[in-house]
Specification:
The chain has twelve helices and twelve strands. The protein is α/β, with parallel strands linked by helices and 359 residues long. β6, α5 and β7 form a beta-alpha-beta unit.
Length: 359
């Protein structure tokens, strides 16, 4: 399972600045609307100190971190569904993403042009959300008549057709699919944008990073969705520094985590994901699974055969393994457990699966 996140928002709000900072990339971020035309894609390792510690324990074993793919696209404007700005065709580039980061301008800088004169977070958010709903409406209106026709010939499709009609009504009333209680089962291939979970990222002045009152005021605009407060400008400065200098600079703004970590944690939370680890001399590696996944399901992320032929999982918590200094030490201390098919994976698990491929 590889996590991918699409970055959306109005033009000139800091999407590409953020993308560059997150991915360590060097694409054009410029002070004019529509600086981005072609989509930019960047793959980022998920920082995880446990992998470094395990690598040391296993004699410098190579690290294979989990990854997140970020996709930076052009800015959307009001009327994009009717061709305003660059239109909305480029939304196709985020259709396969698992989640969206909606960047909202909340910084003050008279030198940075705002497409509608001045930043107004509430209005700006609703402009984008309206365009996403309209884009989905176009997708649904393309499909609905065909599905209705097919359903008349094949009664098995009646339920699906009725469901798409309900989704159409929902979108037509201006509401996104995500959070509506509607699911997309059977209609996944439509890849509706508004069916994806959205995390709002308010691009704020660095002087507002510790301003709780400001955060609350902005978070209230999007609740119950998750809101993050990041200064893309500060993130850009951070990305050029080594780890120690990064921590110092962040601390000087009262921050304990970089924007990248905040974004990744928020995405994992929103999507209900967690990781587990495998470790040995050959490699130490993080794997991404759904929260609540059982041991065989977790094994299946490595290889389908591991799930089908699952026998047992040898599990030790990473902190116990590191404290013991070796797997043998952890075993001697009684910290290594053998778990069966119904075991629910925990986020700090280091696992070795036993399986039988001939099954
Ligand atoms: N003051 C300030 N300026 C910023 C911040 N983030 C971005 N900018 C500036 O805003 C301008 C636009 O940034 P981009 O990252 O290119 O914006 P974008 O959203 O990708 O814009 P499009 O690609 O045109 O849709 C640039 O001049 C950035 O330097 C910020 O946090 N503070
Ligand atoms: Mg851009």
């Amino acid at each position: 399972m590889s996590l991918s996140i699409g970055i959306i928002g109005l033009p000139n709000v800091g999407k590409s600045t953020l993308f560059n900072a997150l991915t360590g990339g060097n694409i054009l971020a410029a002070n004019y609307p529509f600086a981005t035309i072609e989509p930019n894609t960047g793959i980022v390792p998920v920082p995880d100190q446990r992998l470094n510690d395990l690598s040391t324990l296993y004699g410098g074993a190579p690290i294979k971190p989990a990854t997140v793919t970020f996709v930076d696209i052009a800015g959307l404007v009001a009327g994009a569904s009717k061709g305003e700005g660059l239109g909305n065709q480029f939304l196709a580039n985020i259709r396969t993403c698992n989640a969206l980061i909606h960047v909202v301008r909340a910084f003050n800088d008279p030198d940075v042009i705002h497409i509608d004169g001045a930043a107004d977070p509430a209005r700006d958010i609703s402009v984008i959300n309206t365009e996403l709903v309209l884009a989905d409406l176009q997708t649904v209106e393309n499909r609905l008549p065909r599905l209705q026709k097919e359903a008349r010939a094949n009664p098995k499709l009646a339920a699906l057709s009725a469901k798409l009609q309900q989704i159409h009504a929902l979108l037509d009333s201006g509401k996104p699919v995500y959070g509506s209680g509607m699911d997309m089962e059977g209609l996944e291939d439509l890849q509706l944008i508004t069916a994806k979970p959205v995390i709002y990222l308010f691009n704020i002045d660095d002087t507002d990073l510790a301003n709780d009152a400001r955060h609350q005021e902005l978070a209230a605009l999007v609740a119950p969705a998750e809101a993050l407060f990041v200064s893309a400008k500060l993130e850009a400065e951070l990305s050029g520094l080594d780890a120690t200098d990064q921590t110092e600079l962040l601390e000087s703004y009262g921050q304990s985590e970089s924007g990248l970590i905040q974004v990744i944690h928020a995405a994992y939370r929103t999507l209900g994901l967690q990781s587990y680890l495998t470790a040995g001399e050959k490699e130490v590696r993080a794997w991404t699974i759904s929260q609540g996944a059982t041991a065989p399901q977790a094994a299946g992320v490595i290889h389908g055969d591991f799930e089908r032929g699952f026998i047992a999982a040898e599990v030790v918590s990473c902190s116990d393994l590191l404290a013991a200094g070796s797997l043998a030490g952890a075993r001697a201390a009684g910290k290594v457990r053998t778990e069966g098919k119904t075991y629910v994976m925990q986020p700090d698990d280091v696992v070795e699966f036993r399986f039988n491929v001939s099954k």
